[in-house]
Amino acid sequence: MLCRLFAAHKLYPVRVRLVKDVSRTVEWVTVAYIPIVRQLPEPAADERARIRRCGILQRVIYAAFTNVIGRSHIGFRVHVNDQRALAFLRILLYLCDQPEERAVLGLKGGQCAHPCTLCMAKVNIIGAPEALTAEDRKVINTLTNQVEVYEHTRRQRERRRRMALGALESTSGGVPAPAGMAGLGTAPHMLYNMIGFDVLHVSVISFAWKLLPPCMHPFSMDVFLTACLALLPVCPGYLHRCPSLRSWILACLECLCIALSVCFRTCVTGASLLRDRGPPRAVPPSNGCSA
User: What's this model's pTM, rounded to 2 decimal places?
Assistant: First the structure.
């Protein structure tokens, strides 16, 4: 009992970057810790674990931002230049990887009918020119269906209705907690436009760029990516609409950068990277280190 009481849990933090418009200061604040839910040995373990993870994620986010959601609609008083003003909070960007993106927005991940977050393009036309004319995802319609599915799930009823609504827009059955924020679930409906991929999670292309030979360093990374994407038979505007395709292309370009750097150093210098590496060096501990 004592071991179970003090058992450790793996958590990952939710951090907020506060940008104050009046004082022009930026501050990082940790607002919550989300536990990592393990899969249990039970029937349909994958699906049950996914439902528990999504449920805990949405509840933690809602608990952390309950007051913020309310103040985003009614505002709060602040002092600016010896005067009182009414300020409204907004979420401008949510940095995450792609699995967390689908979980936060309550959408299905992996192989589903509509894998794009911003539009309703079907999976069989992803990467094709027909996807450019796909209808944008409607925030109000998707949230209405998610609320109905969640209500039916709580009361354990209308299974066929739940399956039909989930397949209609590839929703997972949960209601996204950030949708309560003003500006996301209300006009201008930026819920599906707030997601930004974290570079540390989806690609390390900037690190691979540093491995390239010095003769290529005068060219910027933006010019290099623009030139590579221009050679693809896909409209550049579609790359912004479909993050999954953009991430796949960036991963391919990352592998290309690493291959170019290895080939250059091996062919030009006549030495392999493994032979140039040498024995590991011992680094002395800094002052105050307990090692």
Answer: 0.65
223-267 residue pLDDT tens: 555 555 555 544 444 444 455 555 556 656 666 655 555 454 444
Other Cβ atoms within 10 Å of 114 Cβ, number: 20
Rg over CA atoms, the chain? 24
Give the model confidence (pLDDT) of 108-119 as tens digits.
887 789 988 888
Is there a contact between 109 and 54 (Cβ–Cβ < 8 Å)?
no
Contacts of 64 (CB under 8 A, 6+ apart): 14, 31, 32
Nearest in space to 21 (alpha carbons), one of 101, 88, 106, 70: 88
Q: Which two tokens stand for residue 130?
A: 């027909």
Q: Is the peptide bond before 35 cis (omega within 30 degrees of 0)?
A: no
Model confidence over 18-37: pLDDT tens digits? Answer: 887 777 788 889 999 998 88
CB burial class (10 A; 0-12, 13-18, 19+) of residue 81? exposed
Residue 278's contacts (CB-CB under 8 Å, 6 or more residues apart) are: none
Distance separating alpha carbons of residues 43 and 29, to the nearest angstrom: 40
Phi and psi based region of residue 127 (left: phi greater than 0; alpha: psi -120 to 50; beta: remaining): left
Domain ranges of the chain: 1-105+176-202, 111-175, 203-269
At 125, list the tokens.
Answer: 């036309």
Burial call 178-212: b when 16+ CB within 10 Å, e when fewer? bbbbbbbbbeebbbbebbebeeeebbebeebbeeb
Q: How far apart are CA 109 and CA 47, in angstroms?
A: 12
